[in-house]
């Protein structure tokens, strides 16, 4: 084959290699292989500019160890110079060329021979992406370098386009990956309820059931301490249900005197009792086609329980003082902070009523058991009350730390009220630790700087930890602590430390 056909073949093969994949290290190696197979290249490298350095990415005729050594600063050595200037360099005889940097140490054998070294920039438009360098392509000494150089330039421009393209694709892939990851994070709070905060796993479970049950008519019983959001969740279920446009009627079973509760629930006829001057519709009637929320159901008197049970079973009742049966279509959501199971076993709550109510149970854990939500809840309430009061109150990190540590016996309601108070009362824009209510400051301790822990206690805990860590071998624990075994025995006695005591 003559020289020209070999050059064409080479170009064809290289473009085939470059088209086969977008994996740069693979394609560049492929291109190098073509150069050595089709031409008479002995050694060759492709180096790319990365972070201000030129690093060899693919090579032929270099060992792995040599490959790793091949990093140059811009302007350093021939490769570095080409990378910096964007101009090719031809070295007719490596042995004579002072700027030739034998960085890889691979040419010791040939250093004095007449071998040529050709180095061309890999350029895309005006940007130097890297350097393609080869020992002379053709063994034939009679052929001018110009010819080799021209071919190399063409190859370099093929490489440039390919590098640019694969980098672009890589960038896009990374952008997509980043987007996917942020979406994943967002999806961790996969179940979203309007104005209800809850990324914690326990709340996500609640949100998931809300989504599941809202379309049905099933009765729901929400339990959880006061202030955990039972009413909020009841409303969420209603407003996500097909009944959203129908009424949501609330009745607090604890706040209405027993004598009045029946008329509250079922209404009364005119003249049903003294003072009943007109007809009155009860909550069940008002809630027709909608949802009735029976709050504090655990406080429902034993006398009224069968009446409620009947509505639950038959969806019908009579107004007080009337024989006429009224049929209603209501969904019932009940809530209680009390332990209904216990009330049932104590005979204070009817078992049949309990099972009727508890078709779908939902439990809202206390805030102290989902502390990961505190930061977001705080931000949510700050935002809410800032808006309401046209303020811009923010919270300091040390104050936030305290809120995250505090026990919150009043749960979210307590947090909400405290933030409202702070936003209204605070002259400053920042809530500092010292601005927090005293109970929060003392109960949480705040930053360790604020925490006054008796030294004795620290020492005691340190000794206990060391003993646990050393399986109660005193000598080992003493060594850990840097004290003598005698000292540790003394301290153990002093603090009354023993296994099973913490
Ligand atoms: N997850 C939450 N996200 C935002 N606000 C909440 C959340 N849980 C409760 N709240 C708010 O806290 C207060 C107390 O909630 P509520 O539903 O009345 O509690 P409960 O009925 O359990 O006593 C309400 O103002 C409510 O809007
Ligand atoms: Mg409530």
Write a concise keyword list for the protein shown above.
single chain; 502 residues; Rossmann fold; 4 domains; 6-stranded antiparallel sheet; 19 helices; elongated; binds adenosine-5'-diphosphate; binds magnesium ion
Question: What does this entry look like structurally?
Answer:
The protein has 502 residues and is α/β, with parallel strands linked by helices. It folds into four domains: 3-170, Beta-Lactamase, CATH 3.30.450; 201-365, Rossmann fold (3-Layer(aba) Sandwich), CATH 3.40.50.300; 368-444, Helicase, Ruva Protein, domain 3; 455-495, Orthogonal Bundle (Arc Repressor Mutant, subunit A), CATH 1.10.10. The chain has 19 helices and 17 strands. The strands form five sheets. Strands 3-2-1-6-5-4 form a six-stranded antiparallel beta sheet, with helices on both faces. A hairpin with a 6-residue loop joins strand 12 (316-318) and strand 13. Helix 1 (3-20) packs antiparallel against helix 2, helix 13 crosses helix 15 (411-425) and helix 18 (474-481) packs across helix 19. Residues 196-198, 224, 226-232, 377, 380, 412-413, 416 line the site of adenosine-5'-diphosphate.
Give me the secondary-structure topology.
Blueprint: H1 3-20, H2 24-38, E1 44-50, E2 53-60, H3 64-69, E3 71-73, H4 77-85, E4 89-91, E5 117-124, E6 127-135, H5 145-188, H6 201-213, E7 220-223, H7 230-240, E8 248-252, H8 258-266, E9 267-268, E10 280-281, H9 283-286, E11 291-295, H10 305-314, E12 316-318, E13 325-327, E14 331-336, H11 340-345, H12 351-357, E15 360-363, H13 374-389, E16 394-395, H14 397-405, H15 411-425, E17 430-431, H16 438-444, H17 455-469, H18 474-481, H19 485-495
Parallel strand pairs: 7-14, 7-15, 8-11, 11-14, 16-17
Antiparallel strand pairs: 1-2, 1-6, 2-3, 4-5, 5-6, 9-10, 12-13
């Amino acid at each position: 084959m003559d020289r020209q056909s070999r050059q064409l073949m080479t170009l064809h093969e290289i473009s085939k290699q470059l088209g086969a994949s977008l994996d740069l290290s693979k394609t560049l190696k492929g291109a190098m292989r073509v150069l050595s197979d089709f031409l008479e290249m002995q050694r060759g490298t492709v180096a790319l500019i990365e972070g201000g350095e030129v690093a060899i990415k693919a090579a032929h005729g270099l060992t792995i160890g040599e490959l790793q050594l091949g990093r140059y600063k811009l302007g350093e050595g021939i490769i570095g110079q080409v990378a910096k200037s964007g101009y090719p360099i031809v070295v007719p005889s490596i042995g004579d060329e002072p700027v030739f940097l034998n960085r890889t140490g691979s040419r010791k054998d040939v250093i004095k021979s007449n071998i040529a070294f050709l180095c061309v920039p890999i350029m895309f438009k005006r940007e130097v992406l890297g350097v393609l360098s080869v020992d002379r392509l053709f063994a034939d000494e009679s052929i001018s370098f110009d010819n080799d150089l021209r071919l190399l330039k063409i190859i370099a421009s093929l490489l440039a386009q390919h590098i640019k393209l694969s980098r672009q694709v890589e960038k896009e892939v990374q952008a997509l990956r980043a987007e996917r990851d942020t979406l994943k994070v967002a999806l961790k709070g996969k179940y979203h309820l309007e104005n209800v905060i809850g990324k914690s796993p326990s709340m996500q479970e609640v949100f998931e059931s809300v989504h599941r049950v809202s379309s049905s008519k099933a009765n729901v019983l929400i339990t959880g301490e006061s202030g955990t959001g039972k009413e909020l969740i009841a409303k969420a279920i209603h407003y996500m249900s097909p009944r959203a446009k129908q009424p949501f009627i609330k009745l607090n079973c604890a706040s209405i005197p027993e004598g009045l509760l029946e008329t509250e629930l079922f209404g009364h006829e005119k003249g049903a009792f003294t003072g009943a001057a007109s007809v009155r519709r009860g909550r069940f009637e008002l809630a027709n086609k909608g949802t009735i929320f029976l709050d504090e159901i655990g406080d429902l008197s034993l006398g009224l329980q069968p009446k409620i049970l009947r509505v639950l079973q038959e969806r019908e009742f009579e107004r007080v003082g009337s024989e006429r049966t009224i049929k209603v279509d209501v969904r019932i959501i009940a809530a209680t902070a009390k332990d209904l199971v216990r009330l049932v076993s104590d005979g204070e709550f009817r078992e049949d009523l309990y099972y009727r109510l508890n078709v779908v149970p939902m439990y809202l854990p206390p805030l102290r058991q989902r502390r990961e939500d505190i930061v977001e809840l705080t931000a949510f309430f700050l935002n809410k009350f800032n808006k309401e009061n046209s303020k811009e109150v923010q919270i300091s990190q040390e104050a936030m730390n305290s809120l995250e540590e505090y026990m919150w016996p009043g749960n979210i309601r307590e947090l909400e009220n405290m933030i409202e108070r702070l936003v209204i009362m605070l002259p400053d824009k920042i809530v500092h630790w010292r601005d927090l209510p005293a109970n929060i400051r003392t109960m949480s301790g705040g930053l360790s700087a604020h925490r006054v822990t008796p030294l004795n206690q620290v020492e005691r805990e340190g000794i206990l930890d060391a003993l646990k860590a050393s399986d109660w071998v005193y000598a080992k624990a003493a060594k850990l602590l840097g004290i003598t075994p005698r000292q540790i025995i003394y301290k153990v006695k002093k603090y009354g430390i023993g296994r099973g005591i913490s």
